[in-house]
């Protein structure tokens, strides 16, 4: 059944890259581009996009020209390819003229398989003339969402890429992106004149992963319960935000009879690689790690990925949870998150280097992550929708298995928001959720008395809810943008949306806090 071309691409996969077989979707794309077709590829991060142009570039005559905005990564990418014996080079603004001339000479002499170019290079006429004088096997446009106004990193340089086709009509083009919203997809196709190209859309769904997100109370104990009741003896990854909590959590698990190893950038290189090697080699080990762990880890039988802290973005969450269940067997993605996570991440964003636009982007990422946490709908549907894909309720996530009830939280929201407004009006701005909730519950703590908050008219007006329920209200209002948090102390502040709730009767539907974390009832074991 295999055509000569197919076996040639498979051979390159085996011989050069050392992999046995193509991943889902790769083969069709590789074959299509190898035989000269144009392609637009939407594939999740980590799905294996690079091979989709690297193998055709190696099989076809000439040099594969890769346009990538990730200038900082070019050296590493090229080094990695060279280590495999692939003749690769790059041209970007970080090089001095001598280095550039050397790469150009290699290109012209036909001594390269792959040439990485920063997009701005193609606005320079001399680069275009250079490409004319050599033989180009294909153009790969990586991070193709950069061409889109909808995308996160719009690059005017990318617009010029639509001209490639006019200048080199016979050279196949493959554009690749992991950003799959419908609007972006359509815009990439039209801006790069790839309407007639074959569109390959990989699914972002991982049906064997059960997504669960629970309120964080005693995270280490909650984790231990999960491991004991559902994952005893299983291999898994536990993600924590800080090195300190990685160490503490690993210690805690070990003390409770679970074989766990820490992994973070503060450990020396030998320990790190030893722990990683043991995780890959041995059965049933748990690695407790910062997000430094996992890149390029391809262990098929990771049965659970647990997050003890909120990931910074849905993309990150998807990538990290995606390390579970590569073998297709049932696996768990479990996340515990609480109000403190939101405060902490806000603080990180506010204090981060970079300009206002960068901070806005980080905020948008956090908001999307919060929305996923607080959704009353199927987690999978929400996750896929984030990546622009449709799906029906999965029947296998926590919200599907135990649909959260919703309740009319308008009055509760008004009580909470008016407390926030009062403290603000009195220029007492340094109060977080704890103080606000103490006031609502009518608790005469020393801090309440000290600031005379027991004389406020809202003091004690919220006794109909328990503290954990109020925390849920705060989290959900944050997720809905009806409340915001700022500064080092997690000060709660109002938003334009808050005013609608307070003064315009906007209704607020909230999800009821689960009494107990939903447990998997349909899980089938190996
Ligand atoms: P993407 O660009 O889509 O994020 P990469 O191309 O970087 O993903 O690939 C992600 C990881 O998967 C890399 O470590 C890569 O070597 C590995 N990989 C890709 N294809 C295969 C395959 N067919 N078999 C095994 N590993 C693969
Ligand atoms: Zn579901």
Structural write-up:
- β10, α12 and β11 (286-289) form a beta-alpha-beta unit.
- 42% of the residues lie in helices and 14% in strands.
- It has helices spanning 4-15, 26-34, 50-59, 71-83, 97-108, 125-133, 156-159, 164-167, 182-191, 219-230, 243-255, 269-281, 314-321, 339-350, 356-374, 379-386, 398-401, 410-425, 433-441, 446-450, 467-479, 496-503, and strands spanning 39-42, 63-67, 88-91, 114-117, 136-141, 173-177, 198-201, 209-215, 236-239, 260-263, 286-289, 304-307, 331-337, 406-408, 484-486, 491-493, 509-511.
- By secondary structure, it is α/β, with parallel strands linked by helices.
- It contains 22 helices and 17 strands.
- The strands form four sheets. A seven-stranded parallel β-sheet has the order 3-4-2-5-6-1-7, sandwiched between helices. It has a six-stranded parallel β-sheet with strand order 8-13-12-9-11-10, sandwiched between helices. Strands 14-17 form a two-stranded antiparallel sheet.
- α1 crosses α2 (26-34), α2 (26-34) packs parallel to α3 and α19 (433-441) crosses α21.
- It binds adenosine-5'-diphosphate and zinc ion.
- Adenosine-5'-diphosphate binds at residues 19, 22-23, 26, 43, 45-51, 296, 298.
- Residues 19, 22-23, 26, 43, 45-51, 296, 298 line the site of adenosine-5'-diphosphate.
């Amino acid at each position: 059944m295999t055509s000569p071309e197919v076996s040639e691409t498979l051979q390159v996969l085996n011989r050069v890259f050392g992999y046995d077989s193509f991943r889902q979707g790769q083969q069709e794309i590789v074959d299509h581009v190898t035989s000269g077709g144009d392609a637009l590829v939407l594939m999740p991060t980590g799905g294996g996009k690079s091979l989709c142009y690297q193998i055709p570039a190696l099989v076809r005559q000439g040099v594969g020209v890769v346009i990538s905005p990730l200038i900082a990564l070019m050296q590493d990418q090229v080094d990695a390819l060279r280590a495999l014996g692939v003749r690769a080079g790059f041209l970007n603004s970080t090089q001095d003229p001598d280095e550039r001339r050397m790469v150009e000479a290699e290109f012209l002499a036909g001594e390269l398989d792959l040439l990485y170019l920063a997009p701005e290079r193609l606005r320079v006429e001399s680069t275009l003339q250079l490409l004319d004088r050599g033989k180009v096997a294909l153009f790969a446009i990586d991070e193709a969402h950069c061409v889109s106004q909808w995308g996160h990193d719009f690059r005017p340089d990318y617009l010029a890429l639509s001209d490639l086709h006019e200048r080199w009509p016979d050279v196949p083009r493959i554009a690749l992106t992991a950003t799959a919203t419908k609007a972006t997809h359509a815009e990439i196709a039209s801006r790069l004149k790839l309407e007639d190209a074959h569109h390959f859309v990989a699914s972002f769904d991982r049906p064997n992963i059960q997504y669960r997100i629970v309120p964080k109370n005693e995270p280490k104990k909650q984790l231990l319960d999960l491991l004991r009741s559902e994952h005893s003896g299983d291999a898994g990854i536990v993600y924590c935000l800080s090195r300190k909590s990685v160490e503490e959590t690993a210690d805690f698990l070990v003390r409770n009879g679970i074989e766990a190893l820490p992994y973070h950038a503060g450990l020396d290189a030998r320990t790190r690689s030893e722990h990683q090697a043991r995780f890959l080699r041995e059965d049933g080990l748990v690695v407790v790690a910062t997000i430094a762990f996992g890149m390029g880890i391809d262990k098929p039988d990771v049965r659970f990925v647990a997050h003890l802290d909120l990931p910074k973005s849905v993309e990150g969450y998807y990538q990290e949870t995606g390390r579970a269940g590569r073998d297709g067997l049932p696996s768990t993605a479990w996340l515990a998150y609480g109000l403190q996570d939101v405060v902490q991440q806000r603080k990180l964003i506010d204090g981060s280097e970079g300009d206002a636009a960068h901070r806005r982007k980080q905020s948008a990422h956090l908001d999307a992550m919060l929305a996923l946490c607080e959704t009353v709908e199927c987690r999978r549907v929400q996750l896929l929708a984030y990546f622009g894909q449709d799906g029906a309720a999965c029947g296998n996530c926590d919200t599907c298995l135990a649909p959260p009830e919703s309740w009319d939280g308008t009055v509760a929201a008004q009580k909470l928001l008016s407390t926030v407004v009062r403290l603000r009006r009195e220029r007492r701005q340094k109060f977080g959720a704890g103080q606000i909730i103490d006031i609502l519950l009518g608790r005469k703590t020393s801090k309440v008395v000290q600031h005379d908050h027991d004389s406020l008219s809202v003091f004690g007006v919220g006794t109909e809810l328990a503290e954990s329920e109020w925390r849920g209200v705060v989290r959900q209002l944050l997720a809905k943008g009806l409340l915001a948090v700022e500064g080092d102390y997690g000060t709660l502040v109002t938003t334009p949306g808050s005013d609608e709730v307070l003064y315009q009767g906007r209704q607020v539907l909230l999800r009821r806090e689960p009494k107990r974390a939903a447990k998997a009832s349909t899980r089938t074991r190996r």
